[in-house]
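All the exercises in this workshop are built on plain-text protein records. A record pairs a protein's sequence with a compact description of its fold. The structure tokens are whole numbers drawn from a learned vocabulary of backbone shapes. Once this layout is familiar, the rest of the handout is easier to follow. An example says more than a description, so a record of this kind follows.
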Amino acid sequence: MAPVGLSAIRVAQGIPVDVSPEDNPTKPEPDLVVLTRSFLETPPPRPKPSDSTLLVEVADTTLSFDLGPKAALYARAEIVDYWVLDVTGHRLIVHRRPSDGQYRDVMAYAEAESVAPHAAAGIRVLVGDLL
């Protein structure tokens, strides 16, 4: 997916996202979804993976689920940028390059480190600011 301009990015909280056909009717609800267009412009009933540039889960008690089954679900749907904010571990775990139902690149970032969303490479986010 090509990076999109900031003017085209929209953020939604707690909305269900369509996933790959073999995983339907599962409709996960990430804590945060960055869409390529306004949620109101997204075809009903739910955004598709191609409508999103980033999914974020905030994990405290759900860390193993978010890093395991949910990561696999998003990889099968080819979500290109999936972030898990590990509140207890004070880190951000970034998943990229989905292929064959798993993420090929998984990196953990500490509080003092920064990371850029895949679709907005020029914008750095300090992990500590997310915690």
About this structure: Helices lie at 63-67, 69-76, 127-130. Residues 60 and 89 are 9 Å apart (CA to CA). Residues 69-76 form the longest helix (8 residues). The longest strand covers residues 91-99.
